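Thread: "does anyone have the structure for this chain?"

Original post by V.I.:
We have the sequence but no experimental structure in hand. Need at least a predicted one for the grant figures.
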Amino acid sequence: MSGQTHEDAELASRAFGERMRELRAREGISQDGLAHASGMHPTSIGRLERGGREPRLTTILSLAEGFGVEPGELVNGLDP
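Reply from O.Q.:
Generated one for you, tokens below.
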């Protein structure tokens, strides 16, 4: 993987994490609450929000269910 591709993936992961935080704030849900609603571990939620983990499609689908939104709301218009 080229250095630029790696950097792009990191930027995209951070942008995704920022979107998660925005949605959590809007919905008034804690990380633990989101973890419970999405069937994920709270540690995973924290890693995703910090951009330390690139989400898989199944993760995005689980998070969307936990938030009660369409999956596109998590990714549409992200600007890494």
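V.I.: this helps a lot. Residues 3-68 form a domain with the 434 Repressor (Amino-terminal Domain) fold (CATH 1.10.260.40).
O.Q.: and The chain has one domain: 3-68.
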